[in-house]
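FORM 12-B: Structure-to-Sequence Request
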């Protein structure tokens, strides 16, 4: 099969172009000799099946960050039929150096200049014919965001595939040729690109005067996050109610009549185990989709990078930098890619300290647990405040961890950060991002959820001769064993069993509760609300927020740190901290009469 690789600098729209080129057929794959996962997709180009590999964004082919070494190693060890280089049309004077480094590898190439809409607004004029002649390769100008010029770029890629039927390795000698690049860069840019000496005032500068204000910047950021949660609840709750109604109709109208003659254990397993456990998780899918859509606005608009800039001074006092803050924000989706994102940090000490704080991020798996408890226990307006407080607590625990361990993991690496212009994603991009992230969550969690609810059902129903979830079942015996540890936190016996399975994957917690209490989506909230007051519920959520990350996160911590001792620390520290924080909160609240 033929193969092409996509390369480019960060913030050039490479991922947007990859998604538009490949559709929804992307997969994560491993490559021989390469220790990280790369996104790839198989598509039909000019009647030929072609594998498209999306390589990490890099600034320099000769740098020392992990991402730069991954790209280098890929080009040295994997054969390709051609390279597709994505650059920002408004920054060619800075970005063409990477293209010239890649050109020295003597591989078939085509250049795609993205963000043509922004270049036009800024008055940047590019002579495509002259640039193509100077570079000796096809050059196309596109807007991956709106699709303008996309067909021309696709045609150029097809031509590379057709004219280069044999895949080849990069010329190793080209990886060491840097001396002449600066001179050649000046010659090409001066002859092909016309940039105004003073760029016209634009919305980015006007917004930055306010959003990057020394005193107003951080308060505005946290107000924005708070408003985001208000919108998520306002839009997502009615959609969740509709999902609950639909699942209940399926259960009462189809599932129960179909199982009316089935043996009682089988009926209980399918209805109370599989359907109620998995259905309870699915009922939160609308809110998760809405959440990721709004996160896409903050991330794709360029505001996330500015949050890192604003937080850099604060993070520096903790032994971290603004990139650590960005990685923690990435952890809101999933801790795993956030941990892998620390490869851009060259300092091992900075990277390890960042990896120690990332698991405190309130990931999407924890999010659906908190969405359930906040909607079950609190009024809608209070629920948004509770969620906001949990996000603040996640930052507080991360900052506390950094303060405690910064002496052991000390770094002096400076921060280098690019602030892209503000861009508002299209509605199609928002829908795609929301669904793609939610689909990733469901695909990654489905195995854990199904396996988890089956094991929980078995523990809460065996032996079959006793009432489900009673003290005589295996789950009851396990809960009795753990009771002395969790009673001081206000966490009852059965909730402690759900926490135990949450170590496998936080996605299991709500499904486990549905199985433990033998309740469906609509009934479980009422049962929980009747058993817990707000102090107990908040103590449970604090413990869930802070304690040991899931097995997938632990595996990545071990893989990225390459240290068994560090992995043990990353597991034991949050567990002890979770118990201590929940204990202090619960006992203090009770002492105050709440």
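FORM 12-B RESPONSE
SEQUENCE OUT:
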């Amino acid at each position: 099969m033929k193969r092409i690789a996509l390369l480019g600098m960060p913030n050039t729209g490479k991922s947007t172009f990859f998604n538009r080129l490949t559709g929804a057929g992307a997969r994560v794959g491993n490559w021989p000799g390469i220790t990280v996962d790369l996104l790839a997709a198989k598509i039909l180009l000019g009647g030929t099946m072609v594998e498209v590999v999306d390589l990490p964004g890099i600034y320099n082919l000769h740098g020392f960050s992990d991402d730069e070494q991954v790209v280098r190693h890929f080009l040295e060890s994997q054969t390709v039929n051609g390279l597709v280089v994505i650059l920002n049309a408004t920054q060619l004077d800075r970005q063409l150096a990477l293209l010239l480094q890649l050109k020295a590898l003597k591989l078939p190439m085509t250049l795609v200049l993205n963000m043509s809409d922004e270049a036009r607004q800024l008055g940047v004029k590019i002579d495509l014919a002259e640039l193509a002649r100077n570079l000796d390769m096809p050059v196309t100008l596109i807007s991956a965001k709106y699709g303008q010029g996309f067909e021309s770029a696709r045609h150029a890629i097809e031509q590379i595939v057709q004219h280069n039927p044999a895949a080849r390795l990069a010329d190793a000698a080209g990886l060491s040729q840097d001396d002449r690049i600066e001179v050649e860069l000046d010659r090409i840019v001066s002859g092909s690109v016309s940039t105004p000496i003073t760029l016209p005032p634009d919305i980015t500068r006007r917004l930055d005067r306010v959003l990057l204000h020394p005193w107003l910047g951080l308060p505005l950021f946290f107000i924005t996050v708070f408003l985001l949660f208000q919108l998520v609840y306002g839009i997502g709750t009615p959609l969740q109610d509709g999902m609950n109604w639909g699942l209940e109709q399926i259960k009462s109208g189809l599932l129960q009549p179909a199982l009316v003659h089935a043996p009682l254990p089988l009926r209980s397993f399918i209805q109370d185990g599989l359907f109620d456990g998995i259905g309870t998780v699915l009922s939160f899918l609308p809110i998760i989709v809405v959440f990721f859509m709004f996160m896409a606005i903050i991330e794709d608009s360029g505001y996330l990078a500015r949050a890192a800039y604003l937080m850099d001074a604060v993070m520096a006092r903790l032994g971290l930098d603004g990139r650590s803050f960005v990685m923690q924000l990435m952890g809101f989706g999933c801790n795993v890619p956030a941990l892998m994102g620390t490869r851009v940090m060259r300092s091992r000490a900075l990277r390890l300290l960042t990896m120690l704080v990332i698991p405190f991020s309130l990931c999407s798996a924890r999010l659906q647990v908190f969405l359930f408890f906040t909607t079950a226990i609190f009024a809608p307006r209070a629920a948004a405040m509770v969620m906001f407080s949990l996000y603040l607590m996640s930052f507080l625990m991360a900052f506390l961890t950094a303060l405690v361990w910064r002496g052991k993991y000390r770094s002096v690496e400076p921060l280098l950060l690019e602030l892209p212009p503000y861009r508002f994603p299209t509605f199609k991009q928002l829908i795609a991002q929301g669904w793609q992230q939610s689909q990733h969550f469901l695909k990654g969690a489905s195995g854990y959820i199904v396996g988890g609810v089956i094991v929980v059902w078995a523990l809460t129903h065996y032996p079959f001769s006793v009432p489900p979830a009673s003290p005589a079942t295996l789950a009851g015996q396990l809960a009795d064993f753990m009771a002395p540890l969790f009673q001081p936190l206000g966490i009852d016996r059965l909730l402690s069993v759900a926490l135990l399975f949450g170590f496998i994957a936080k996605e299991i917690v709500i499904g486990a509760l549905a199985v433990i209490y033998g309740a469906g989506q609509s009934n479980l909230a009422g049962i929980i609300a009747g058993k817990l007051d707000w102090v107990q519920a908040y103590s449970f959520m604090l413990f869930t927020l802070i304690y040991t990350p899931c097995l997938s996160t632990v595996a990545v911590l071990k893989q990225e740190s390459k240290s068994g001792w560090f992995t043990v620390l990353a597991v034991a520290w949050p567990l002890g901290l979770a118990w201590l924080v929940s204990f202090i909160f619960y006992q203090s609240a009770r002492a105050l009469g709440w």
